[in-house]
Design a protein that fits this description.
Largest sheet: 4 strands, parallel
Low-confidence stretches: 134-210
Distance between the termini: 105 Å
Helix content: 40-55%
CATH topology of the largest domain: Rossmann fold
CATH architecture of the largest domain: 3-Layer(aba) Sandwich
Structural class: alpha/beta
Number of domains: 2
CATH class of the largest domain: Alpha Beta
Strand content: 5-15%
Radius of gyration: 27 Å
Strand order of the largest sheet: 2-1-3-4
């Protein structure tokens, strides 16, 4: 009897150990499965506005990094070897437009894109042709509000570009994403090759850098920013369907804020006395086009370009003719030319932020795309009233 009891106890113990082992294995498998589910998407963005748009969409559900630091002019930046490595290990690369990030062809030709989604935020948006500056500007349309035709969202806006040539419809390429998310990379990147000149297939270069066929500064118009946010969100939901609902909710909440910003611009600029703005470089074409203003740039699409004596003479005559009292420049570039022109006109200067990067002070103050665009609107209202 005692022997039977011992055998039963041993059998019970063995069975318990067996179940415990199975449970331990199941717990380990479940933990590994949960960990895999928690692994976040790795998204690399080009520069500040695209970074912020993407962060607003994904929230805490993905890791988002930025290639171009605030101290570097995006028009001049080129990817270094470590940047290429970062992109190669990412799940998605989000950029503004090939006319801004002129190195995007190099990425597509250098990096294995099998498991990399390349997202063009400007896909489907009709781009404005590039204008060199005041000497090429047709003033016959001054003060008129312009309406665009944009196919991107099904919205139809008629736009007459007498002064800009034939309309261009931009089509960006998106890539299907396959594969698993990667482990997060370190945030610090060595930009040892920044500013170095490179040759790119399909892009013309002159002594000032890349040649731009179309204006890439879409983000400086809240209307265009909304379209870019929608495109980024749509593409991210394709490659991360598990977080689709979160992305959709975040996108809608952010777009509501952008729509309020857009409305503020429309109301504030609808009845201003002056409609012409002289800017340091041709960065505010979409803003002007969206809200019935006329941009007259001192230089071209890069703030580093300097106008000729003839251009300065024409700018002075234009400013005097239109009673322009403020010359706009950017805080991330030299204000020398703007100040020279302002002195000749007995005008003042004011900063319009291009949002190509946040300054240290902006970061400390918790500045955002929306808060800086609100400050830009205040500056415009004061100058154009």
């Amino acid at each position: 009897m005692k022997m039977k009891k011992l055998l039963f106890t041993a059998s019970l113990l063995a069975t318990s150990l067996l179940f415990a082992g199975c449970q331990s294995t199941n717990d380990s498998e479940n933990a590994a499965e949960n960990e895999a589910k928690k692994e976040k998407l790795e998204i690399v963005t080009s520069f500040y506005p695209i970074y912020e748009f993407t962060k607003e969409i994904v929230g805490d559900e993905a890791n988002v990094s930025m290639l171009i630091p605030a101290s570097i002019e995006p028009h001049d930046w080129e990817p270094a070897a470590k940047d290429l490595e970062l992109i190669q290990n990412a799940d998605a690369l989000v950029f503004n437009n090939e006319n801004m990030e002129t190195w995007i062809d190099e990425i597509q030709n250098t990096v294995d894109t099998t498991n990399l989604a390349i997202i063009d935020a400007s896909e489907g948006i009709e781009l404005l042709p590039f204008s060199e500056g005041a000497h090429e500007h047709d003033h016959s349309h001054e003060g008129e509000a312009h309406e665009h035709e944009h196919d991107h969202e099904g919205e139809v806006h008629e736009h007459d570009h007498d002064h800009e040539g034939e309309a261009h419809e931009h089509e960006g390429d998106t890539h299907d994403h396959e594969g698993e998310a990667h482990e997060p990379e370190a945030d610090a990147h060595d930009h040892e090759a920044e500013g170095e000149a490179h040759e790119h297939e399909g892009h013309d270069h002159d002594e000032h850098g890349h040649h731009h066929e179309f204006d890439p500064h879409l983000w400086l118009s809240p209307k265009m920013a909304i379209k870019e946010v929608e495109t980024i969100a749509t593409e991210l939901m394709k490659i991360d369907p598990e977080n689709k609902e979160v992305y959709e909710t975040n996108k809608n909440n952010y777009i509501q804020k952008l729509q309020e910003l857009d409305k503020a611009y429309e109301e504030a600029l609808a009845n201003v006395t002056n409609k012409e703005i002289i800017t340091q470089h041709a960065a505010f074409g979409y803003l002007a086009d969206s809200y019935g203003l006329t941009q007259v740039p001192i230089a071209g699409l890069s703030p580093d370009n300097e106008p000729s004596a003839k251009q300065l003479k024409e700018l002075k005559e234009f400013a005097e003719e239109h009673n322009i009292s403020t010359i706009f420049f950017e805080d991330n570039a030299s204000s020398k030319v703007a100040e020279t022109l302002a002195n000749e006109l007995n005008a003042k200067t004011a900063v319009l932020n291009t949002l190509e990067g946040l300054s240290e002070e902006d970061e400390k103050n918790g500045a955002t795309y929306i808060s800086i665009m609100e400050e830009n609107l205040k500056v415009l209202k004061d100058a154009l009233k």
